[in-house]
Specification:
This protein is mainly beta and 123 residues long. It is built from one helix and six strands; from the N terminus they run ββαββββ. The chain has one domain: Hotdog Thioesterase (Thiol Ester Dehydrase, Chain A, Roll), CATH 3.10.129.10. It has a six-stranded antiparallel beta sheet, covered by helices on one side.
Length: 123
């Protein structure tokens, strides 16, 4: 299961998902990243898309972000960097799923979050 479960398409689809991990490259000429640093909302959206890939079970057709917990970004992300995201489903509660996301750049942790999604269809 990959990015096809997301309702997003270019230019807002940010991920290149591969089995429990995802990659995103923020380019310098990207409209989302004007300036010297990638805005926090772009990183949160990227993490939400990663959760949307990791969270749905069989038969799920997508979902919505319900809650953002413990978002931390101790290191800035700048255009031109490639970020790897590792996703782990922490808990499923009926139509809700909680996903832990770890974002790394060159092996160093740059951001973490726990996101809750409400799934549509399936469980």
């Amino acid at each position: 299961m990959g990015a096809e479960v997301l309702p997003h398409r270019y230019p807002f689809l940010m991920l290149d998902p591969v089995a429990g991990t995802a990659r995103v490259r923020f380019s310098a000429d990207d409209a989302r990243c004007r300036g010297e640093m990638v805005p926090a909302w772009v990183l949160v959206e990227t993490m939400a898309q990663a959760a949307g890939v990791a969270g749905p079970g069989e038969g799920a057709s997508g979902g919505s972000l319900v809650q953002i917990n413990r978002f931390r970004c101790p290191r800035p992300v700048t255009p031109g960097q490639t970020i790897s995201l590792a996703m782990t489903v922490a808990r499923k509660m009926g139509p809700l799923v909680r996903v832990r996301i770890l974002a790394r750049r060159e092996g160093k942790l740059i951001a973490t979050s726990i996101l809750t999604l409400r799934l549509e269809g399936g469980a």
